Amino acid sequence: MGDTLIRNARCVLTMDDGGTELAGVDIRVSGGVIAEIGRGLSGGEVIEASSCVVTPGLVNTHHHLYQTLTRAVPGGQDALLFGWLKTLYPIWAKFGPEEMFTSAQIGLAELALSGCSLTSDHLYLYPNGARLDDTIAAAREVGLRFHPTRGAMSIGESAGGLPPDALVEREAAILEDCIRVIDAFHDASEGAMVRVGVAPCSPFSVSRELMRDAALLARDKGVMLHTHLAENDEDIAYSQAQFGCRPGQYAEDLGWTGDDVWHAHCVKLDGAEIDLFARSGTGVAHCPCSNCRLGSGIAPVRAMRDAGVKVGLGVDGSASNDAASLIGEARQTMLLQRVSLGADAMSAREALRIATRGGAEVLGRHDCGQIAVGKRADIALWDVSGVESAGSWDVAALVLAGPTRVRHLLVEGRQVVRDGHLVTFNLDAAILKQNELARKLA
Ligand SMILES: [Zn+2]
């Protein structure tokens, strides 16, 4: 792959420690990394950027890509979390490898168009021969940097759990498959395109023993841990009734805190739990649109950030959003904090920082999330010459006004979106396939 030269960027938001913003600079990309930033650079394929605001690629820290096949399902549109799950489980039970692959392609493409270069995924059901491998194949094709997590559910309805028995797995088989996918796909090296994590679905869908064993396995293999935690009031009540403690305590007791752990949602964390997360370096995937969609509440992101908790953004699964616009989540993050705390609770720039560097830190990717020499060349270019930006006085407009789609997106120096279109694979064919699969499921 040859060099690329991003020329004469209108403004570069570097997301370095000082929040440096550079006007009229060039960025030279070589060998998948940012090689040079300055004026009058030369060499490589040129991307004209005089009409573009340039940011690090956005980082998505929580998703269930497979759910792009179950957006706007009528029975789940207005339900609370547990009722919503019960509506969707029987539909998901009909999925197989083809559904996993195609829905992942669609979800990844949607993310890419909204500026995302690095995403995690949480796949916790494996019906009819589906495997984590199906989503990894999709990510390789689309070209995003990918952190798939091997999720799991082991407590079915007959054992007092929420999912139908057909969707749960034996715990020994879960751990075996975790080892298989880590050994097959996990890359710990700098610049890795795939890193695997271990991710039981939630404390209410697996046993205490599996939570503990998953943490031991992840530490043994040097991979990260992820799950859903403290999502809403029902979740807290369940924890207190079943485990006799709040979710933070449960997590800490089972080894689920530390800088190699991140939890999705955390809407209901209390002050002591926020302190625990800050002290232990535990990360949070904040999913504002999903929290709104399911009526879960407003996560205390301001308090978390002030306490020093690492926070990134997540679109969450498309069945509970139902969109997957990561730049949209940045805007929603800012708006939600303002709803609870006032107009000065969060700036547009801070929301964008959470969406980029914040997410990279949550996923342990210190090689991503900034525009700086030596960092990976994951770069989003936002054209601000269009209607959404007309009349804007400041780059904060990217969150306050738009655009909501990238003009160009580079991942590891490779162009994934060019002039607003995916160029790595045939998206139109994938959309047709996805709609055909959705019709069959209905
Ligand atoms: Zn989720």
Q: Could you characterize what this model shows?
A:
It is built from 14 helices and 19 strands. With 442 residues, it is α/β, with parallel strands linked by helices. The N and C termini lie far apart (43 Å). The strands form 3 sheets. It has an 8-stranded parallel sheet with strand order 8-9-10-11-12-13-14-15. It is globular and about 65 Å long. It binds zinc ion (ZN). Zinc ion (ZN) binds at residues 62, 64, 122, 228, 264, 316-317.
> Rounded to an integer, what's the Rg over CA atoms?
21 Å
Count of distinct strands: 19
What small molecules does the structure contain? Answer: zinc ion
- The percent range for strand residues is 15-25%
Low-confidence residue ranges: none
Major beta-sheet overview: 8 strands, parallel
What is the rounded distance between the termini? 43 Å
Average predicted local confidence, pLDDT: 96
Number of separate helices: 14
Question: What's this model, at a glance?
Answer:
The protein is of the alpha/beta class. It has helices at residues 81-92, 97-113, 132-142, 171-185, 208-221, 233-243, 247-253, 271-280, 288-293, 301-307, 326-341, 348-362, 397-400, 427-441, and strands at residues 4-9, 11-13, 21-22, 25-30, 33-38, 45-48, 52-56, 58-60, 116-123, 145-152, 197-200, 224-229, 261-265, 283-286, 310-313, 379-383, 408-411, 414-418, 421-422. It is globular, with a radius of gyration of 21 Å.
Task: Output the keywords.
20% strand; 14 helices; 442 residues; alpha/beta; binds zinc ion; 19 strands; 7-stranded mixed β-sheet; single chain
List the helices and strands and how they pair.
Layout lengths: L3 E6 L1 E3 L7 E2 L2 E6 L2 E6 L6 E4 L3 E5 L1 E3 L20 H12 L4 H17 L2 E8 L8 H11 L2 E8 L18 H15 L11 E4 L7 H14 L2 E6 L3 H11 L3 H7 L7 E5 L5 H10 L2 E4 L1 H6 L7 H7 L2 E4 L12 H16 L6 H15 L16 E5 L13 H4 L7 E4 L2 E5 L2 E2 L4 H15 L1
Parallel strand pairs: 1-6, 2-7, 8-9, 9-10, 10-11, 11-12, 12-13, 13-14, 14-15
Antiparallel strand pairs: 1-4, 2-3, 4-5, 7-16, 16-17, 17-18, 18-19
Bound molecules: zinc ion.
